[in-house]
Amino acid sequence: MEKKDYIRIVDLVKSYRDNHVLRGVNMVVDRGVTNVIIGGSGAGKTVLLKHVIGLEKPDSGHVIVDGADITVMNDVELEDIRRKFGMVFQFGALFDSMSLFDNVAFPLREHLNLRPGELRERVMKMLGLLGLEDAWDRFPGDLSGGMRKRGGVARALIMEPDILIYDEPTTGLDPLAARNVDRLIAETAERFRVTSLVITHDMATCYGVGQRVSLLHQGVIQISGSIDDLAASDDPVVRQFLASSGVKAGEVESLLPV
User: Fold this and answer.
1) pTM confidence score
2) Is the predicted pLDDT of residue 55 greater than 90, yes or no?
3) Is 131 domain-assigned?
4) What is the DSSP string of 49-103?
5) In terms of residue numbers, what domain contains 78?
6) Is residue 41 part of a domain?
């Protein structure tokens, strides 16, 4: 039987001098679902993400990815593990000097030795799946915000990762654009059958896409579970966070464009 958890984080501790960022994080990222890590500014979300993909070493604790403890791996072993991940950054983070085609092709050229025809076939197929085939020769500056975001997803998916990570995907977007990004996250998870990990402070995104949610507060996971588990919690920290977000679960659909 396939294990349910794709990533397991155990007693993770990380400090920078006197700044205790992670104070014993325990959580799982479930396989095949959309996992959300929610938390306010300074909660430690970015530091936790860096540990998940092996860019940081903890002071103590473990990060288990698909059964392997990455905290004890060397750089070569970590490089293999990182190929399991695809990263979607804020605003898509495409290279301005490259066409959309070359942006999506970039990971293939870096990691694989494909014939030009095979490379073109793979890139154009991915662009087609995301509705971008007619924009293949355009540069990021000529694309709408939504197209740039889909371009970032195409680049993240081109190496066929097992897990797709979205780092604050709705930051800086207006509410309608943010909800369109949420829809893209949900559609991508369903179409490509990837495990998704969404790092965000946007409670509307959490309500919109989260199947498993973990609230990171002052360096520890305050609660993990379903949206319903969060809503039903009587933990004062959880209650305060939900109240301060200003968004209720039933209000998210009203923000979506018709």
Assistant:
1) 0.88
2) yes
3) no
4) HHHHTTSS--SEEEEEETTEEGGG--HHHHHHHHTTEEEE-GGG---TTS-HHHH
5) 5-84+161-255
6) yes
